[in-house]
């Protein structure tokens, strides 16, 4: 086997297997590290290394963790701690080009955390190649959701084992296969692109031709639009990669690792925020299909409900529930608050993730149950996450179903505010009420004060809710979040 060079020009493909947090703020613990060093000129493996890692707290290895990667507590009980292998990990990675699938959002962040916990400076990359972002942009979404398992299945490389060294080698093979396809397509673009069921170069599109909807359980065959997240992950410094190829035009090899390495990202690694599905701290999205329409319950036809995968600027894709090709949003009046605001969970910055629970009518239950079933079948086609029903029916209270409405927030500079529009109206049962006095007024909050909201949204209050249905698949949990866009609360 050829030895690594002294100039550390090799590409270090690496992957981590970790525990899966079961409560907010718990964090991740590394269970396994695997890496290979690859010659960028000959694309041959020069060196490999893998090791199990014993976490500092064995109780972090939950059933969710075992289900995700198969690594049990017994498997790591006699393994070295991270501090024991830190020297080897540092030597493999420091000063080299790093490569991996979704490493910018996950593996790089976990690695920095692990070195910080043992009071050591982390290794620094010469550059970074995130194959999730790169392939989504250059290869197109012809392999579906672009997860490693989907890419491997597309090329017939077998099942993903979710073990570090196996996944690293699979990642390397996937890149080589994608490079070969792109090379062939670039050599005869008129033929290959025309006969391809999806063009790898169609990475931008407008809303007028963006309504590619999935009615079954298969992944979307629509190519992704260029997203801010993807562009940032494959650019050197501040120079963006703008060499989008026009269909039918000849081009140089689009996957030559020489030019590719010149494009790698050298900016500081970002902290890892959850992949947005479970977080209620939002920033304005750039989903392809947008809607401001809210349907009444009698306007919703279950036969018109479909599921679609669309590009999303915080990640490679987002699942949407559509009604007649428009994102499904519902207006429901007179929802009775069962439980007031919950501040039990917090986001990555320690801010409460606010939500409250309301009773639901049989009509609303029927609609949400149907949407739940459609989305579950879609997610189950490529996920082993545990599905959480959107309608909550507790044992012994099956005839008293409830739903949870989320109140998202947004941070602007040093200030935080709710994005939900909140209004107040007098109670219709008030003796002093008259048509002229039943005016609706928007509630203006001077600051992010949960106590103000708690005084407004109390158990027994009646709420007119305008909400969207947002599927998520995050940390082995999947389901539909109901996000309140507008609330009209009856004053007590």
TrEMBL record:
Q: Which GO terms describe its molecular function?
A: 3'-5' exonuclease activity; metal ion binding; nucleic acid binding; transferase activity
SUPFAM superfamilies xref list: Ribonuclease H-like
Signal peptide limits: none
- Cite the entry's keywords alphabetically: Exonuclease, Hydrolase, Magnesium, Metal-binding, Nuclease, Transferase
The keyword Electron transport appears for this protein: no
| Top-level division of the source organism's lineage | Eukaryota
Biased amino acid composition, Polar residues: 228-252
- Enumerate the residue ranges of region (Disordered): 213-257
Q: Which CDD domains match?
A: DEDDh (cd06127)
Domain named Exonuclease is located at 10-184
Identify one Pfam family in the record: RNase_T
Q: Where is the composition biased (Low complexity)?
A: 216-227
In terms of InterPro entries, this protein maps to:
Ribonucl_H, RNaseH-like_sf, RNaseH_sf
Per its UniProt record, the required cofactor names are: Mg(2+)
Q: What is this protein called?
A: Polynucleotidyl transferase, ribonuclease H-like superfamily protein
- The organism encoding this protein is Artemisia annua
């Amino acid at each position: 086997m050829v030895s690594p060079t002294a100039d550390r020009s090799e590409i270090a493909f690496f992957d981590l297997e970790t525990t899966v947090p079961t409560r907010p703020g718990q964090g991740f613990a590394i269970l396994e590290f695997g890496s290979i060093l690859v010659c960028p000129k000959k694309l041959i493996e020069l060196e490999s290394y893998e090791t199990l890692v014993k976490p500092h707290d064995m109780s972090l290895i939950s059933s969710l963790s075992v289900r995700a990667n198969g690594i049990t507590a017994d498997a790591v009980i006699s393994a070295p701690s991270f501090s024991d292998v830190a020297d080897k990990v540092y030597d493999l990675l420091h000063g080299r080009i790093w490569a991996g699938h979704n490493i910018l959002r996950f593996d790089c962040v976990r690695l920095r955390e692990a070195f910080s916990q043992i009071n050591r400076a982390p290794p620094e990359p010469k550059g970074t190649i995130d194959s999730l972002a790169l392939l989504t942009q250059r290869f197109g979404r012809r392999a579906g959701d672009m997860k490693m398992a989907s890419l491997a299945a597309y090329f017939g490389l077998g099942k993903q084992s979710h073990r570090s060294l196996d996944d690293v080698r699979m990642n390397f093979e996937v890149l080589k296969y994608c490079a070969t396809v792109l090379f062939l397509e670039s050599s005869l673009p008129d033929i290959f692109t025309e006969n391809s069921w999806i063009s790898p170069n169609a990475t931008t599109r407008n809303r007028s031709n963006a309504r590619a909807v999935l009615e079954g359980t298969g992944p979307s065959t629509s190519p992704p639009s260029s997203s801010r997240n993807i562009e940032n992950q494959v650019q050197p410094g501040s120079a963006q990669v703008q060499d989008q190829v026009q269909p039918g035009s000849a081009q140089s090899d689009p996957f030559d690792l020489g030019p590719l390495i010149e494009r790698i990202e050298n900016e500081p690694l970002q902290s890892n925020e959850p992949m947005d599905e479970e977080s209620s701290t939002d920033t304005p999205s750039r989903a392809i299909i947008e809607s401001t329409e809210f349907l009444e319950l009698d306007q919703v036809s279950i036969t018109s409900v479909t599921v679609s995968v669309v590009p999303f600027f915080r990640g490679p894709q987002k699942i949407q529930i559509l009604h007649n090709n428009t994102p499904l949003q519902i207006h429901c009046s007179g929802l009775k608050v069962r439980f007031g605001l919950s501040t039990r969970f917090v986001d990555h910055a320690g801010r409460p993730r606010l939500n409250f629970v309301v009773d639901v009518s049989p009509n609303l239950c029927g609609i949400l149950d149907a949407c739940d079933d459609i989305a579950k079948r879609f997610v189950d086609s490529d996920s082993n996450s545990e599905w959480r029903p959107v309608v909550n029916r507790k044992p012994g209270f099956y005839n008293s179903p409830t739903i949870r409405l989320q109140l998202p927030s947004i941070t602007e500079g040093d200030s935080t505010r709710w994005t939900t529009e909140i209004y107040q109206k007098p109670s219709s049962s008030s003796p002093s009420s008259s048509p002229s006095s039943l005016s609706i007024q928007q509630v203006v909050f001077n600051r992010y004060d949960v106590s103000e909201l708690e005084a407004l949204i109390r158990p027994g209050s009646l709420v007119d809710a305008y909400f969207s249905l947002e599927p998520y698949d995050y940390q082995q949990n999947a389901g539909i979040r109901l996000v309140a866009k507008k609330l009209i609360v009856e004053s007590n």
